Fold this sequence. Notes:
Number of strands: 9
Strand content: 25-35%
Largest sheet: 5 strands, mixed
Structural class: alpha+beta
Order of helices and strands: EEHEEEEEHEE
Shape: elongated
Distance between the termini: 45 Å
Number of helices: 2
Strand order of the largest sheet: 2-1-3-6-5
Number of domains: 2
Radius of gyration: 23 Å
Helix content: 10-25%
Amino acid sequence: MEKLYIKLSENNTPVGHPHFESNLQQIFPEHDFSSGPPSGWMEFERVAPPALGPYEKFDDSKGGDIALAFPHNGLEYKIVNGKYTDVWHVLDLTDGEKLTKQNTVKSDWSSFIATSDGADYSHYVFDEAYCAFVEPEE
């Protein structure tokens, strides 16, 4: 995978989003990247967002301008092991949020049953652990 770098401000905070090394080589054709990034840049390590459980959400209080590239907040750039990296922040749903989600899933299930093709889903049960209707195990 191609290396990524992020531009730093005068205070050594990240500016914008990471750039591929090949793009920086075009901007800095004289720079020897084997000796590290150009001045004012730092290596960046991309971390994929975590798969959320049924009762988790991204922390909307984190992210600010960075999160504009995603459909949610919960991401910030931090230095970890000498390079900037994605740090994802996840929160558990409150009891009220869990109940709201469960009620929405149950309502959506009822709507699905009402418009289904006549198949019999009456044996499905709500599994609270997954916040979903599942076919019971035999």
